[in-house]
Automatic annotation (TrEMBL), chain B:
Cited PANTHER family: GLUTAMATE SYNTHASE 1 [NADH], CHLOROPLASTIC-LIKE (PTHR48467:SF1)
Phylogenetic placement of the source organism: Eukaryota, Metazoa, Chordata, Craniata, Vertebrata
Pathway the protein takes part in: Steroid metabolism; cholesterol metabolism
Binding-site residues, NADP(+): 186-189, 230-231, 242, 400
Cofactors, names only: FAD
Positions contributing to FAD binding: 50, 71, 79, 115, 393, 400-402
Keyword Aminoacyl-tRNA synthetase recorded: no
Organism expressing this protein natively: Sinocyclocheilus anshuiensis
Gene designation: fdxr
Catalytic EC class: oxidoreductase
Residue ranges occupied by any FAD/NAD(P)-binding domain in the UniProt entry: 41-197
Reactions accelerated catalytically: 2 reduced [adrenodoxin] + NADP(+) + H(+) = 2 oxidized [adrenodoxin] + NADPH
Keyword Oxidoreductase among UniProt keywords: yes
Protein name per the record: NADPH:adrenodoxin oxidoreductase, mitochondrial
Amino acid sequence: MAAFTAVRAAVSFTQRFVRVSRDCSVCPLYRLNVCTGAAVDGFSAPNRRLRTSIGVCQSADSSSPEEDQRVVNVVFIDRSGQRIPVKARVGDNALHLAHKHGIELEGACEASLACSTCHVYVSSEHYEKLPEPEEREDDMLDMAPMLQENSRLSCQIILTPELDGMELTLPKVTRNFYVDGHVPKPH
Amino acid sequence: MMTMITLMRGSVMKIHGLSSASRCLAAEGGVRGLSSSSGPRVCIVGGGPAGFYTAQQLLKARQDAAVDIYERLPVPFGLVRFGVAPDHPEVKNVINTFTQTAQHERCSFHGNVNVGKDVTIDELRQAYHAVVLSYGAEGNRSMGIPGEDLPGVFSAKDFVGWYNGLPSNKELHPDLSFETAVILGQGNVALDVARILLAPVEMLKETDITQNALEALAGSKVRRVLIVGRRGPLQIACTIKELREMVNLPNTRADMLPADFEGIAEALKDLPRPRKRLTELMMKAVKEGGDDKAEKCWGLRFFRSPVEVLAGADEKRAAGIRLALNKLEGSGESVRAEVTGQLEDVDCGLIISSIGYKSIPIDPAVPFDPRRAIVPNEMGRVQDTAGLYCSGWVKRGPTGVIATTMNDSFDTARVLIQDMEAGKLDLSVNKPGAQAITALLQTRGVRMVLFSQWEKINAEEEKRGKSLGKAREKLLDVDEMLKIAWS
């Protein structure tokens, strides 16, 4: 098990490294000759038709070095109510951030606005600061159970400095399937 | 140290995977053979979204659980492969998550196994601590009207299966030489069928639609598609994404009846957001209609129920459909359609009934509710049958998108885990799992398709697709699939 913990640490270390320096020569995995180049690919993956919405894949690459250093504090609140504070960077994608920190947020369609599994509630003062959702996001949000005024799809949230302190709450979707006898709407 | 580096290399490659759950799964599964042979063994019947999402959750929640997925076809993924429309490839991205699950250390996919015929549920229950039924809905509701069996009438399930390469629908040969097609039902499946019938071939030719369907559609004479529902605009079952795709379909115009929309504008303000946006889009289509010069048209028709399929003069095939006009009684969610006595005949040569899929019983040992066509259950625990669970459409009925099934499958998995932890499932008994079932199947001459063998089929389909400029060209024949899998 120690090996795995070491690997997990190494991977997240590499990911942070790549984002900050892009200088492979200082990376331990590279120096140990075990770099697979996978970290550099970031959010893309070979052999998959990944159709993502504009901005999601660019976010990892297009931030300038000065912006990269700026920390954005985000708190995820999981389905059991547990608060998980994470330190992120300007330009990070909220869904990928959740995955990086092991938060149980699915992304079935892989950020291509074809599902609603990454649905979150945004803290109200930060909700105002997000750009308006595009029509396609609104269409998908309409299908999310327990839609609220402050609902967004986390795969469309790109972190900016003014989102510092944002809280993203995962909807308690599953409990309500039975507690109030709610019958799911057709489709 | 070198071992650690080799381990790291292997694990780094695995970890740079895809979704959160799969990432968590892969990370701890880096070394072969670590999984305990005395942990709980769970069997899942059905290799579609429900099966895979249930497996995913079980594997994550219990580090000692082994999960086996049994699937009747040689190929996995169920309706993600055979139901989702070819022009919705992003919806199919979820296959990547399922692939990660199937490749997990403690998960095994067994294709080409017909549960109920090759092996019984009781035999599975003997070999596993728990069995989860996730076999979906392979039947369809029938309209129950005269003329329903005439040539030219199809269930949406079969029509969708035809363009999506479901082996049992490969000989469908729908005749597309008629101008008007009528679809009964107004859910997302109905809209998918309408869109595929009217979409320009350019939109389809690079997708994974089957080549024979593509060629048939390229030569299609269908120019007008009516999508008929028995209630009103406020009860329409489709979602806004699919309706918007119809409104935006190139070279088509919307042909609606303003009379069907009386009183709707006034009702808008009280509607919840999703229903409101959907209704506003419909109203816009009524008002704007679209390009008059458009060659093709589609329309929604409300308050109409099919009562008879009318045969042509030669009595040999469908030439029209007789619809009864309804009025609405009741309010809110329980609005119902009541007959008025008025009738309307529509000339058409293609009739597609899209009024719902339907589950069928898999094994006499499993309770089944024929009225609701589901396996009776309480939160996923099959009634009166310890150790038997269900998830997906066979549990809730055939509605919902992949996300709905995902949440439902996670619920069943949670309930199963709870039962394990509460001692309701006796984990102290050692169960043989796949070993016993494989041996049993061998004695019956049944050979399985492993996930790595499906990957050969997958590679072949992608290769054939490439030469045609398409995402993939699906194999249509089970025997051909098996030949490639076992080559």
